[in-house]
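Shift notes (night). Ran VWFC domain-containing protein while the centrifuge was going.
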Amino acid sequence: MRAVALVFFGLAVYYRGLVAAEDADEAVGKLLDPCLGVTKPEETPCYVCTKCVAGVWNCSSVDCSDKQCVDGYTPPGQCCAVCPNGPNCKTHGATIPLDKTVTLPDGYTCRCARDEDNDQMMAMCTPPR
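Came back to this:
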């Protein structure tokens, strides 16, 4: 015969047969925490799971779209690139730090600024006089 569990004030009572203590603990735990025994999905640096709610894990992909430099690299074990020299732009073969104005060897004067419309770094240059 099958064992039937009744839960009353956190206590499990079993009828029609003996049930191992581990099974009783698991039955009570499942009723109190629907995430008990739910396997967490495999994570990667770019796919993370934060919490389990009602037996379902909340997982999402990491957003790395906020690129702030031209010389970024992705360290081993991480998802998004880092900027070793801070935010910057590249134009005419030169890397220019954010908010700096430089005169290039070809005479152009360039400035690296943040484009307010798309929040990206953008080099703006004026030709030599």
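The radius of gyration is 29 Å. The longest helix spans residues 21-32.
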